[in-house]
Amino acid sequence: MKLHNKLSIKFLLVLVVAFLSGCSKEFLDEPQNTAGLPEPVVFSDKEIVQSFITGIYDRYKGQWDDDLADGVNDSDPDTGGLYAMYFARTIKGNDLIQAPSWFLFDYAHENRGPSFRRTSFTWSFNFEIINYANVLIKGVTESPDLDETTKKEFIAVGKAIRAFHYFQIALEFAPNYNSDPSSTRIPIYLEPATGASEGNAPSSLTAIYDLILSDLKEAILDLPEERLGKSYINKSVANGILARVLLVTQDDWGLASSAARAAYGGTATSAVVSTNWGNGFSDLTDQDWLWGHFQNGTNETNFFWMAPHVFADHLSLSFQATYINTNFRDAFSDTDVRKLFQDIYSSSTPYREFVTTKFAFTFSSDVPLMRKSEMVLIDAEAQYNLGNEPEARNLLFALQKDRDPNATLSTNSGNALMNEILLERRKELYGEIGVEWFDAKRLRMPINRDAIHRVVVNVPADSELFYLNIPQSEIDANPNMDESLNQ
C-alpha cells in the first residue's frame, strides 16, 4: 500500500470546512481546529465525528495533491477531486470534443500508463477516501461513548462511502464485470492503514462487487433521509448508488428498479421537473438534484478548475475547452429545452462548430453528482429488462415530455426501445458523470468517433482502453502486487 494512503485523523480534521445546507444554503458553524486530537477523543463526540465526515466530503472537491505536507502543490486541473474523475470519463466518448487543453490525454485515450498522473490520481484518491471510511467505521464501532443509534448511522455513512469508492476503483481499474468477473487486480481493505500496514493481495472482481453490494444494502437500512445538505450521502443517494451498481452487474433488475424508485421518490412525472436547464446547471437546491458539490462562491474561489462548468462554458472567463459533436446536437428536437448549443466562433475547424450553454461557470457554480432524472431512466431500463416495455415507455415519456412539450410516447420495442433509453441518458446527462463511457463499458459496446472529432479513435467493446493500468508506485510499494497485472 502506498505511504500516502496511510492517512491520519489529524490531517483530515484540519481539512474540515463548513458545508451548506442543501435547502437553506446557510453555513453550518465551522468546527474548531481539532488537529492533534487522539482517535478516542474524535470518536467520543457526535459533533466531532460529524466534522470528520464533513472533512471526507470536502476531499471530494480538488485540488488534489497526494502529499499536502511537502509544501509543494502538485495538483493540476485534471486531477482535482471526484469531479475530475467524472470529467475524464465524460470526454472519452463521441458526444463531446476536448480542445488541446487539460484532459487532452483522457480525450485521446492515452491516459492509462502506470506512471501517468491520471492513473496515480484515480487510484490514490479513491483509496484515500476508502481508508477514511475504514477509520470512520472502526472508530465509531469501538467507541464506548456513542449511543447505538448514532453508531448505526455513522457506520452506515462509512459503508456507503466505502462502497461508492470501491465502485469507482472497479470501474476504472478492471474490465467490465460481466466480461471478466474473475479479473483479479484490486485489493480489498476493511481496516484502516497504519504505518506498519502491508498492502493486500488483489481480490477478484466478483469479491469487489460482493463487498460493494453488501456495504450498500447494509447502509441503506440505517441511513436517514435527513442530512446537513445535498453534499452528504443519505438513504436516497445510497439507493441511487445501488441502482448504478446494479446497472453494471445486471443480475437483479427488480432491485435496480426499487432502488431507483426509492431514490427518485416513485413518481416520475414530478421527479424529473428541473429549473436548471437554461440557467447554467449550477444550483444544487434544484429539486431534481439528489447529490452534488456545493460551492459558496467566496472562500472557495481556488476551485477555478471545477469541471464541467469551467471547461464547457465559453461565455465567461474559463478554459473554454469543450465542444459539442454536431451529430449529437442534431439528436435534439428544436423544442427540447436541453438543446442549448451555439455556434459562437463561426469557425472553419469542424470540431469547434458548436458549444453548449448547459453549464455556466461562476465561483458559486454547484456541480451535479446524481439526479432524480437519472434514476427515472435507470427505472425505465430496469423495466425494459424485466419485460415490462409499456412501463419502460411511460417512464421514458415522463422525462421526454417534461423536456420537450412536443414529445410523444415511444412506440419502440425490443432493441430499438433500449437504444432510445440509452440515447435519452446521453441527452439528459451529457457533461455530468461520463454516462456515454459508463454505458459503453457496462453494456460491452464500442465507442466509435465521428470524423468531426479533433482526435478520431475507435475503442472496441471490452477493449483494455476501458480501464487503467495499476499505478507503478503501487506495484513498487505493495509486495503483493506485481508487474504482471499490467501485461
TrEMBL record:
Its main location: membrane. Residues 1-26 form the signal peptide. The keyword Repeat does not apply. Keywords: Cell outer membrane, Membrane, Signal. It is found in: Cell outer membrane. InterPro entries: SusD-like_N, SusD_RagB_dom, TPR-like_helical_dom_sf. Residues 26-247 form the SusD-like N-terminal domain. The keyword Signal applies. It holds the Pfam family SusD-like_3. Residues 364-482 form the RagB/SusD domain. Belongs to the SusD family. This is RagB/SusD family nutrient uptake outer membrane protein. It comes from Flavivirga algicola.
